[in-house]
Amino acid sequence: MSNKAAWASEIARKLLEVPLPRRWAHTQGVARQARSLAPILGSDADLLEAAAWLHDIGYSPEIAVTGFHPLDGARYLRDVQRAEDLLCRLVAGHSCAHIEAEQRGLAEQLAVEFPPVDQVLSDALSYCDMTTTPDGTATVVTHRLSEIQERYGPDHLVSHFVQLAEPHLIGAVRNTQERARRPKIAVH
Using CA atoms, how far apart are residues 128 and 125, in angstroms rounded to an integer? Predict the structure, then answer.
């Protein structure tokens, strides 16, 4: 594990392991998925793994403020941990957060504080999150989306968000899978 990923995993462990053990298990699985993408991300692999470790820290009761975990986590990283801008933006925007932010009336705050990132990195983080169960095991995106809706119930804001975001999340997963299947070009 690189220095950035090790730093990120320790922050996530401190914020999630005891108060939210299932969220911690999910986070560990998301980080495993991120490591599996290292061959297609090159120099961004470390950044993606760090974002995978940190993507759900906003659920921690210790740092939750707005109740919207991407924004709470990114603000904590920016304001308390003084994390690099791109890492904060990845956490803030993970898994189509802009769509849920719209539902919560937080879209403008999210967009102004944490502008969207490169599509390849954004897709890769969505892939990692959307192909990992709450218990940290690998799954397919359609099962993950169904599980989220079942867990929250049909009338919950998160279920509504998932319905709106589903084509984008499935697209992000497919885009990342396609990138992983492309042959690597040897450099001499």
Answer: 5
The residue assigned the tokens 């690189």 is 2
Query: Residue 67 in 3-state DSSP?
Result: coil
Task: Give the model confidence (pLDDT) of 129-156 as tens digits.
Answer: 999 999 999 999 999 999 999 999 999 9
Asked if 94 contacts 129 with a C-beta cutoff of 8 angstroms, the reply is yes
d(CA 88, CA 186): 33
pLDDT in tens, 46-87: 999 999 999 999 999 999 999 999 999 999 999 999 999 999
Are the C-beta atoms of 53 and 83 separated by less than 8 Å?
A: no
Residue with tokens 């594990």: 1
> pTM of this prediction?
0.94
Contacts of 131 (CB under 8 A, 6+ apart): 33, 138, 139, 140, 141, 144, 173
CA distance 54 to 61: 15
